[in-house]
Design goal:
46% helix; two-stranded antiparallel ribbon; S-adenosyl-L-methionine; alpha/beta; binds S-adenosylmethionine; UbiE/COQ5_MeTrFase
Length: 244
């Protein structure tokens, strides 16, 4: 029997979700960066800057960026880890990874890339000092399996950083819903010629575990000292946890 899961507000078979998520990111890859800036009014840059600061990357660190897409975090991490470090840009989607790799090359940076599923990481146990995933976990089918994999590849003492959309502060819910379900698909249509992908974005955010639930999921995956920081009134949240 096939298990079912959510793709935004739809209930679909697990395999179908994987294909639908792939379609979304093949479709938006070319316009992904400009859409990010426009739809968040540049806020995603601040959320990522906060994540980079919390990562505390030092020269020589081994870092894995999962669902890294167009490479914002990997680029910043590689600069900080320096020539003695090892920073991987990884994603399950070839179109997104290609845009990311080309962007890094245009910045004169050659870093290892891998096309891989976060639920089955092709890396050894206890290898990385830091593992990050930004706006990726929401799209994964088995989030518990992905979190367990992230923990597995971390060294003891290593830190996991999960940046994701989260549950917005209640008084802002109405205007945020209006923006998400009306303005966002309209922008998606105008800029990326794809309203559906941005409707999926709005729905998938509502279906994603809230701050406390994700904290508990990280603890269940074996991470310790799990904490979270609300960003822009909970529009996004950064969760961090340590492997002890
Ligand atoms: C919204 S983008 C985020 C890209 C980048 N991290 C950023 O913050 O700009 C989400 C990414 O998650 C990737 N993704 C979805 N499911 C995945 C999985 N199971 N394993 C790895 N990456 C996945 C998608 O291909 C897509 O590139």
């Amino acid at each position: 029997m096939t298990n079912s899961t959510h793709f935004g507000y739809q209930t679909v078979a697990e395999e179908e979700k994987v294909h639908k998520v792939a379609e979304v990111f093949h479709s938006v890859a070319a316009k992904y960066d400009v859409m990010n800036d426009v739809m968040s009014a540049g806020l995603h840059r601040l959320w990522k800057a906060f994540t980079i600061a919390q990562a505390g990357i030092r020269p020589g660190f081994k870092v894995l960026d999962i669902a890294g897409g167009t490479g914002d975090l990997a680029k910043a991490f590689a600069k900080r880890a320096g020539s003695t470090g090892e920073v991987w840009l990884t994603d399950i989607n070839e179109s997104m990874l290609r845009v990311g790799r080309d962007r890094l090359l245009n910045n004169g940076m050659i870093i290892p890339t891998s096309l891989c599923d976060a639920e089955k990481l092709p890396f050894p146990d206890n290898y990385f000092d830091r593992v990050s995933v930004a706006f990726g976990l929401r799209n994964m089918t088995h989030k518990d399996a992905a979190l367990a994999e992230m923990r597995r590849v971390l060294k003891p003492g290593g830190k996991l950083l999960v940046l994701e959309f989260s549950k917005v502060w209640e008084p802002l819910k109405k205007p945020y819903d209006l923006y998400s379900f009306s303005v966002l698909p309209w922008m998606g249509k105008r800029i990326a010629n794809d309203a559906d992908s941005y409707r999926y974005l709005a729905e998938s955010i509502r279906m994603h575990p809230d701050q406390e639930t994700l904290k508990k999921m990280m603890e269940d995956a074996g991470l310790e000292r799990v904490q979270y920081f609300n960003l822009t009134a909970g529009v996004a949240a950064l969760h961090t946890g340590i492997k002890l």
